[in-house]
Hints:
- The protein is mainly alpha-helical.
- It contains 5 helices and 2 strands; from the N terminus they run βαααβαα.
- The longest helix has 131 residues, at 97-227.
- The relative contact order is 0.06.
- Residues 61-80 are annotated as: Disordered.
- Keywords: Coiled coil.
Amino acid sequence: xxxxxxxxxxxxxxxxxxxxxxxxxxxxxxxxxxxxxxxxxxxxxxxxxxxxxxxxxxxxxxxxxxxxxxxxxxxxxxxxxxxxxxxxxxxxxxxxxxxxxxxxxxxxxxxxxxxxxxxxxxxxxxxxxxxxxxxxxxxxxxxxxxxxxxxxxxxxxxxxxxxxxxxxxxxxxxxxxxxxxxxxxxxxxxxxxxxxxxxxxxxxxxxxxxxxxxxxxxxxxxxxxxxxxxxxxxxxxxxxxxxxxxxxxxxxxxxxxxxxxxxxxxxxxxxxxxxxxxxxxxxxxxxxxxxxxxxxxxxxxxxxxxxxxxxxxxxxx
Length: 317
């Protein structure tokens, strides 16, 4: 059976406090070093078992403690120690029974130190979780308090809002009833107005129909009147412009007849003024002539008397 050996350059890295605290998962390095220590411990146990089986002496192939694969306490105390990965595997030396037992003791001490470090990290992490739980409880308490205040404020606001809405609803209901009553009265008034409008419209239509018939009769009478005017045109007018009587009867209008007879009336008034002037002159001339004739008659009578006297005078002589 081959005797297990340890790599002379293999060393166990300690767990620095700063690294354990700052690492995102502080137990990764702990588990890695724990597995390494367990592997070394198993190797030493195998070496001890092989030494016991082969009857090795304590002096032969004594394993130096400085060449052990397990780190010394100085290695655990120094956070600057780094793990070196050999490129070439050096020649492994056989581990003596005494060296195996010393290595087992050192590995157990190192594993104990590692577990104490693990416990310290666990305590730190527990403290962190405890602080986090307290912070979460504080947030939950603050959140519940604010939610309670908010719920109470909303309840009060909603209650006040409900009261306002109920009051406004009652006012609107009363206003709606008033409007409905007013609307009913307005509808009744509207129906009455429609009936009155219908009655008046029928009456107006009847009157308009009568007026239209009368107007048609008037138009007919006007056409007859204009075709055969009751007044004959004046004969003393010498105007060369077309007159009312020279137009075709269908083209004659009442306005034309009015204008024509108005003009003839003007001419007749002028002629009447002329006739009045002549009448006045004739009357004045008649009176003058009557005076002249009366004077002449008186003179002739007087002359006749005087001539008769003269003649009688001549006859008597």
